[in-house]
């Protein structure tokens, strides 16, 4: 079951090592105004995106350092964030005791070791999705964070931090959809996902998403967001995982597939989740539909429409609990736009606000090590089914 409060003092790694409570450094991370000094480890597109949002939250964060193994990435980022310290070795950055928190936006295979080192150095951690590269790392990271409840670790599944997603979860909880039996989601693009490489020796460092040694491919980079929302909204996990795909268009030496479809069977809920993506067509782009006996929700990043079944429509015309308005406004297709009181901003804005709040209030963020581990395990099992051409089962030992 999903838990907001972590078990304290477990202190046991998968390998059986005990972690004494004083192993983590202690850092005075708040200035008198409540601002936290942060550093960004990994200055690719996502790292720069986090910096961009952090600059909008100047009352919460002060960016003081950046780190990347590639010189040109540091130069690019310094243009965006001049005057900050720069590092090529993240461990040297972690020695700076004035830094209270780090954003980790590196290739997936480096998420776990950097997060562990950052926690040991007394830093709070915003760790990009997917949380870990494999299942063992996910389970180990849960144990490490549980053993040290003073450290905040938030996972960057930022899309579900958009206020509309909280509203949709509320509607699910209140039964507006009835019994949901089908989930349909896609995240399609029409590009090869390849970055320009200034030197052939940097191919795997720059285009790491295309190589299995570093990446979980499209499952981890795109579909994990929608998987995470379903896990969170329904407090669930799949029991069976089926998948297919291939390198069907870009014959350029990549290892991760460019065309993927995975199906999850949520046995407890009597629900099927369909998650698909291609890099060869962008017509649907981001598509997310939840289908229940009372209605369907069509969900985008910052917008959602509820389409009631005929049996529910008459009731909703009398009592509008969806939009909060005194009179329902139906769209031309018979749907009800779902409204929130918050402005439509990038989900990262809201996720970083929650990160700051969690640090100050010493509370667990909504996207935490438990939800992050559940989704990371889903991604890994989906990739095992995909590349191994197998049907994967959820093992009870994965229940964290």
TrEMBL record:
<dbReference type="Pfam" id="PF01408">
    <property type="entry name" value="GFO_IDH_MocA"/>
</dbReference>
<dbReference type="InterPro" id="IPR036291">
    <property type="entry name" value="NAD(P)-bd_dom_sf"/>
</dbReference>
<dbReference type="InterPro" id="IPR055170">
    <property type="entry name" value="GFO_IDH_MocA-like_dom"/>
</dbReference>
<keyword id="KW-0456">Lyase</keyword>
<dbReference type="InterPro" id="IPR050463">
    <property type="entry name" value="Gfo/Idh/MocA_oxidrdct_glycsds"/>
</dbReference>
<feature type="domain" description="GFO/IDH/MocA-like oxidoreductase">
    <location>
        <begin position="166"/>
        <end position="297"/>
    </location>
</feature>
<protein>
    <submittedName>
        <fullName>Hyaluronate lyase</fullName>
    </submittedName>
</protein>
<dbReference type="Pfam" id="PF22725">
    <property type="entry name" value="GFO_IDH_MocA_C3"/>
</dbReference>
<dbReference type="InterPro" id="IPR000683">
    <property type="entry name" value="Gfo/Idh/MocA-like_OxRdtase_N"/>
</dbReference>
<dbReference type="GO" id="GO:0000166">
    <property type="term" value="F:nucleotide binding"/>
</dbReference>
<feature type="domain" description="Gfo/Idh/MocA-like oxidoreductase N-terminal">
    <location>
        <begin position="36"/>
        <end position="157"/>
    </location>
</feature>
<dbReference type="GO" id="GO:0016829">
    <property type="term" value="F:lyase activity"/>
</dbReference>
């Amino acid at each position: 079951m999903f838990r907001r409060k972590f078990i304290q003092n477990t202190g046991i790694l998968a390998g059986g090592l005990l972690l004494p409570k004083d192993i983590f450094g202690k850092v005075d991370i708040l200035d008198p105004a409540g601002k936290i000094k942060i550093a960004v480890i990994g200055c690719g597109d996502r790292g720069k995106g986090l910096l961009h949002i952090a600059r909008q939250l100047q009352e919460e964060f002060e960016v003081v350092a950046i780190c990347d193994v590639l010189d040109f990435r540091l130069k690019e980022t310094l243009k965006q964030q001049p005057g900050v310290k720069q590092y090529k070795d993240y461990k040297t950055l972690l020695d700076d005791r004035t830094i209270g928190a780090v954003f980790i936006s590196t290739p997936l295979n480096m998420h776990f070791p950097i997060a562990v080192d950052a926690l040991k150095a007394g830093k709070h951690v915003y760790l990009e999705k997917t949380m870990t590269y494999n299942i063992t790392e996910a389970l180990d990271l849960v144990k490490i964070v549980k053993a040290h409840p003073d450290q905040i670790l938030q996972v960057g599944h930022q899309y579900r931090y958009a206020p509309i997603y909280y509203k949709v979860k509320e509607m699910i909880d209140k039964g507006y959809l009835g019994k949901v039996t089908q989930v349909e989601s896609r995240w399609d693009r029409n590009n090869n996902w390849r970055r320009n490489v200034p030197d052939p020796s940097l191919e795997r460092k720059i285009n790491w998403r295309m190589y299995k040694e570093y990446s979980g491919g499209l499952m981890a980079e795109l579909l994990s967001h929608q998987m995470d929302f379903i896990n969170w909204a329904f407090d669930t996990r799949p029991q069976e995982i089926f998948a297919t795909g291939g390198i069907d268009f870009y014959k350029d030496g990549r290892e991760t597939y460019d065309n993927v479809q995975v199906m999850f069977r949520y046995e407890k809920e009597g629900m099927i989740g369909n998650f698909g993506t291609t890099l060869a067509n962008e017509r649907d782009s981001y598509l997310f539909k939840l289908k229940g006996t009372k209605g369907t929700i069509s969900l985008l990043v910052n917008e959602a429409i509820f389409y009631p079944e005929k049996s529910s429509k008459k009731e909703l015309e009398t009592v509008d609990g969806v939009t909060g308005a005194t009179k329902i406004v139906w769209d031309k297709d018979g749907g009800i736009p779902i409204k929130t009181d918050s402005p439509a901003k990038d989900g990262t804005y809201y996720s970083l606000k929650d990160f700051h709040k969690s640090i100050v209030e010493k509370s667990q963020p909504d996207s935490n090590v438990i939800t992050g581990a559940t989704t990371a395990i889903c991604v890994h099992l989906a990739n095992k089914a995909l590349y191994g051409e197998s049907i994967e089962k959820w093992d009870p030992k994965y229940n964290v």
